[in-house]
């Protein structure tokens, strides 16, 4: 024995069975109702086909799903490669700009460190070689 | 069986070619419209979404792998469009206004001069109440309910069309039936 929650009269098993059968019968006639409700005139279907054809003519097929993915993956790889490259240190202003006075000073300092002028270095080396050969004691 | 299914897949693929797409529309437009109308109860929306359904199928025809029948694939697209449409709050608001404005306008026109036996009339009225109650179900339950009882699709076909598990389809159907039964009882007891 079942009762309605809102305090209406109790529903017997027989009534319940009948209600189930009635619902089943109602459900069985739904295809017919759906078919009737979906019926339209031949003109309607024709104009719908024309509208679809017109939209198809103006629409290009979508790219396959892998196209945007492959573009995205390529972009990520490129970004990773660019980010992983060692960053060259910025060249100092002194190296990039040429200051003739500074170059002259550097040249003078280098000359002072040497014992002989730069142009005479080969001759000096030859003289040193000859001197060492003559100074060597005979065995 | 395998040969037959391979043949049907080949036929489906052939129909999906651009030059044969008109034939595909001709074959399936009535059913797609009926499914959409059953779920939406709005003839304009059903018409628009039928067009959208075929346009989407045309644009994505390369994605059809022949794992299901082309009709099931089209119904899947239609059901997705319908549930998206129903979930849009803005549209729901306007359709609510429309339904309160013209009460009962969405009910199908049934022949008034149907067989006069009282029992037949009562059964028909109850069927209309079921039809009306189904229109108030949540989107996914509504879709599953109509595919099962109006389109007489199997649970497996519904699962394919809605991309749900068969168990989930059963659960939706069970809840939908409970709601429909309760509403019909309420209306009949008035």
The end-to-end span of chain A amounts to 136 Å
Structural class of chain B: mainly alpha
The counted number of beta strands of chain B is 0
Which segments of chain B are poorly predicted (pLDDT under 50) over 5 or more consecutive residues?
Answer: 101-107, 109-115
Multimeric status of the protein: heterodimer
Share of residues in helices of chain B: over 70%
* Shape designation of chain A: rod-shaped
Keywords:
heterodimer; A: 139 residues; mainly alpha; 7 helices; disordered N terminus; B: 190 residues; 75% helix
Task: Please tell me about this protein's structure.
The complex is a heterodimer of chains A (139) and B (190). Chain A has helices at 13-28, 30-37, 42-57, 66-84, 93-96, 100-113, 121-135. With 139 residues, chain A is mainly alpha-helical. Chain B has 190 residues and is mainly alpha-helical. The longest helix of chain B is centred in the C-terminal third of the chain and has 24 residues, at 166-189. Chain B starts with a helix and ends with a helix. Chains A and B meet through helix 1, helix 2 and helix 3 of A and helix 2, helix 3, helix 6 and helix 9 of B.
What would you say about this model in short?
With 139 residues, chain A is mostly helical. Helix content of chain A is 66%, strand content 0%.
SSE blueprint and pairings:
The complex is a heterodimer of chains A (139) and B (190).
Chain A: H1 13-28, H2 30-37, H3 42-57, H4 66-84, H5 93-96, H6 100-113, H7 121-135
Chain B: H1 2-15, H2 21-40, H3 43-59, H4 70-87, H5 89-101, H6 118-134, H7 139-149, H8 155-162, H9 166-189
